[in-house]
Hints:
Elements: H1 3-15, H2 18-24, H3 29-43, E1 48-49, E2 56-57, H4 59-86, E3 91-98, H5 102-116, E4 120-127, H6 129-138, E5 143-148, E6 155-168, H7 198-207, H8 227-235, E7 241-244, E8 257-259, E9 264-274, H9 280-292, E10 304-306, H10 313-319
Amino acid sequence: MTIQQLRYIIALDDHRHFAKAAEECAVTQPGLTIQLKNLEEEIGIKIFDRTKVPLKPTVLGVEIIMRAKKVLREADAIRDFVVNQKNDLEGTVTMGVISTLSPYLMPLFIKAMKDVAPKMHFNITEGGTGELMNWVETGVIDIALMATPTGNPALKEHPVFNEPFVAYLYPDHPMAAAKVYEMQPEDRPELLLLQSEYCYNAQLLDICSITEHSSTWDRFNYNISSIETLKNLVRAGLGFAIVPQLSVLNEQDTTLFKPFAEPKPVREISLVVADTFSRKLLLEKMSSAIYHCLPDSLKQNTTYKKIRWNDSPYFINAVSGGK
């Protein structure tokens, strides 16, 4: 017994005519007749008396049709509930954001979402890429805002924007006066990385064409966990950094950072959800809010080179414990 078969017998009861019922159900008359026969054989009861003109339900058929209408009302209610949930902009959503993006984008996003969905409540937490992927898969959070592609088939990725990387230089760097940055051989061993941010670090090593990394500091082992710390170390002349463009949005001294020549290296930023997530309208509103609160410099058309991380030898080695 199927929902469609129940719709057929209700249409037959309404029209008491096979051709008219078939037309309403957008099915051929023989097809409708076969489905009715199959249903009657399955339950062992004649629903309609075909000897009557017009068609007439049997005594038991009247009861079956009444119950079928009740079942279809419940089925339609489930469908309406799902549609409303997909279009609902109320309630609570748990959201995770990569720590290399959160400090710079979240203040803008929160302000924008207050205007777009004033009845929504967001619980936002920062995390590393690996953590966010695990949290989405296990249901700890509903949505992650992170660099993609993840390469994880259990997750759905909804790209929002491409964020360019920029070179962050100390004041007397050889390219401090240049308009765009070109990789210098002496910069590679001075590249500063973040502790445990294997995905982010893999992207930086890719940009620099480095397969392995070792620090040039012989007296210090400094586990850096924030981009702001990286930038302060560069200002002190202790290294070279590659940082996301949003992290320099409010920099007063614009001579400290330089864009790369085209094609610019970028990271793709996406809203990532489990494959069972159904609130499409919410994702659309969030994606629109994020994009519209970005500075114009990130919306310009230019030639990009998307930097991946999930297939990096450095990343694979790091997460497998070889690092």
